[in-house]
């Protein structure tokens, strides 16, 4: 059974649909020789172009060093100077009928940069979409203090950020 906040893809606005399609495209790049469970994710950046950065899960034969699609997208974006986001989408196969949502590690990492950010979760068919937010995915979170926003805005060297 799907949660109450699940809506048909066709009912979403154009930007949400575009974000989900980017996650779906990202999923096609997944490197998953061990789990065979491909996941795609995409972040919309809060910049003038509303850049979309997509990612996929990348596994390793040393299983723990594998990385999820959400954190791939996030690290790609942050490494390109993008630190503020207005949307996250995730696309993966359903498991026992349930849509696949981000793991706990990804929820924590995404919340570092995107609090109260809309999240759209769907399966590769892009039929039904679970609509939620980053803060709903991780209630009572260990969240960064407001003072760290100064640090996140710092784009200079590490030394410059340590004040
Ligand atoms: Zn994860």
Automatic annotation (TrEMBL):
Position of the signal peptide: none
One BP annotation, GO: nucleobase-containing small molecule metabolic process
Pfam family, one: dCMP_cyt_deam_1
InterPro entries given in the database record: APOBEC/CMP_deaminase_Zn-bd (IPR016192), CMP_dCMP_dom (IPR002125), Cyt/Deoxycyt_deaminase (IPR050202), Cyt_deam_tetra (IPR006262), Cytidine_deaminase-like (IPR016193)
Its EC number(s): 3.5.4.5
Domain of life: Eukaryota
Binding locations of substrate: 57-63
Coiled-coil boundaries: none
GO CC terms: cytoplasm
Catalysed reactions, as listed in the record: 2'-deoxycytidine + H2O + H(+) = 2'-deoxyuridine + NH4(+); cytidine + H2O + H(+) = uridine + NH4(+)
Binding site for Zn(2+): 68, 103, 106
Gene Ontology terms for molecular function: cytidine deaminase activity; identical protein binding; zinc ion binding
UniProt entry keywords in alphabetical sequence: Hydrolase, Metal-binding, Zinc
Active site: 70 (proton donor)
Cofactor(s) it depends on: Zn(2+)
Top-level EC class as recorded in UniProt: hydrolase
Chain ranges of the CMP/dCMP-type deaminase domain: 14-145
SUPFAM superfamilies registered for this protein in UniProt: Cytidine deaminase-like (SSF53927)
Entry's family note: Belongs to the cytidine and deoxycytidylate deaminase family.
Role this protein plays: This enzyme scavenges exogenous and endogenous cytidine and 2'-deoxycytidine for UMP synthesis.
Protein name according to UniProt: Cytidine deaminase
